[in-house]
Design a protein that fits this description.
This protein is α/β, with parallel strands linked by helices. The chain has eight helices and 14 strands. It is about 40% helix and about 10% strand.
């Protein structure tokens, strides 16, 4: 017999009491708002690149006032969400104090982070012959947005702030197709060409002047389990990529002990679970390519198709 709408509601309500792990009925008061964090990401991008977002271009004479206003708005919005993320601390006073400490540290690091982002723009301009200007990179290159948000999220991740860093990088992931965990450590002059499908894991270490192409995965090789068969959390799981390395499309490099030595080049479609010494070229031997005349196309039989 089919359930009525009322029966469906009653049974659904029953699951809320039975499966507590996926219930959070007080979420609005105790979990950070995704919408607020997404708005924060947009505001941060406007701070990093004033005039390049959807807002009207600011007059240079007004830039100081506009920037101060953005910082005040950002402080107010983030303070509320950080307090929610820290809600498990013992008292409201300690939550407020810790949130202010994290927020002050974060905002004070934005000028230096912006200088780091200019190195990423340099890397994109020098590394992509299709790039005609810095403006084009800032406006149209998804990798810059993904890298910028990850760098900012990483500052909060390093302060052990729960939830918010992951929401930030997932916002960038949904917009760009580039998935960089906020825990990844990334050096200067970082460039991801095209970018779609790139995955960079939490414990990755990436040096300076590294260039990745689309479809590259820097992931974990396997997961250790405890005596109960549960996956152990933490530990070094993802590879280290040293300075001046280039990794071509669709290559996969796995494992916390895997190190790609400086100045190495990893060719396309390579699968690596072992370290590579500096100044290496890694590629598969090319399969034999055959070029033959096409067979004459025949007419398809009624009711069917012919694949010549």
């Amino acid at each position: 017999m089919e359930l009525t709408a009322r029966d469906g509601v009653d049974e659904l309500l029953q699951t809320y009491s039975e499966t507590g792990g996926i219930n959070y009925l007080d979420a609005a008061a105790t979990l950070p708002s995704r919408l607020a964090i997404e708005a924060t990401c947009a505001e941060l991008m406007s701070l990093m690149f004033p005039g390049f977002r959807s807002e009207a271009l600011v007059n240079s004479a007004d830039l100081a006032d506009v920037t101060r206003s953005r910082m005040r708005n950002l402080h107010a919005r983030l303070k509320t969400e950080i307090c929610k993320s820290l809600g498990k601390l013992s008292s409201r006073e300690k939550v407020e104090e810790k949130a202010e400490e994290i927020l002050s540290s974060f905002l004070s690091q934005l000028p230096q982070l912006r200088k780091m982002l200019w190195t990423d723009i340099d890397a994109a301009y020098e590394g992509d012959p299709a790039a005609k200007s810095y403006e084009e990179i800032i406006l149209a290159y998804p990798a810059l947005e993904a890298i910028a948000i990850q760098r900012m999220a990483h500052l909060l991740y390093m302060r052990e702030l729960p939830l918010i860093p992951r929401i930030m990088t997932e916002w960038a992931h949904s917009r760009t197709g580039i998935d960089i965990h906020p825990g990844a450590q990334i050096g200067s002059y970082f460039f991801i060409d095209h970018g779609t499908g790139v995955v960079i894991g939490e414990t990755c270490e990436i040096g300076s002047r590294v260039k990745l192409y689309h479809g590259v995965t820097l992931g974990a090789r396997s997961f250790q389990k405890d005596e109960h068969g549960k996956i152990k959390k933490g530990g070094k799981r993802h590879p280290k990529v040293e300075d001046d390395v280039t990794i071509y499309p669709n290559s996969t490099i796995l494992g916390g002990e895997t190190v790609i030595g400086a100045r190495s080049t990893i060719g396309g479609n390579v699968f690596l679970v072992q370290s590579v010494p500096p100044d290496s070229l890694v590629y598969y031997e090319e399969k034999q390519l055959r070029i033959v005349p096409k067979r004459p196309r025949k007419e398809a039989e009624p009711g069917g198709a012919f694949f010549g």
